[in-house]
Design brief:
This protein has 134 residues and is α+β, with helices and mostly antiparallel strands. It has two helices and seven strands, in the order ββββαβββα. Strands 4-1-6-5 form a four-stranded mixed sheet, with helices on both faces. Strands 2-3-7 form a three-stranded antiparallel sheet, with helices on one face. Strand 2 and strand 3 form a beta hairpin.
Amino acid sequence: MIKASALIIKDQSLLAVKKKLHPSHFILPGGKLKNNETAERALIRELAEELNLRISMENLTFLQTFTTPSQFEDVTLTTHLYLVEHVARLEVANEILAFEWVAIKSGNRNDLASGIKDFALPIARQLIKKELSY
């Protein structure tokens, strides 16, 4: 299964969401690609659906593609991760139960999905470190 996810950073924290269907873990905002949809278009659509966040292609910077087992289904996920610049207010919408700003320095929380723990947090730490060194 192919999906697109957003790494949204604010005040040295990253945005994580809980879905109503799977409230046990926080995951990155985003979702599955639909037929003939690019990862960028899927992410723009998903962020609008999940968080009422309206962004454009100019707000996206590709970071990495990674593969992990799904936290909730017996499938392998191939995730295209994008840094998303935003300034808008976020609102829980559709299938989202809640969102939380997770400190980038946070340890190994049990309620974070592997995409956050193994990929998003290390990348976010590198980005923050680069930013602080300028």
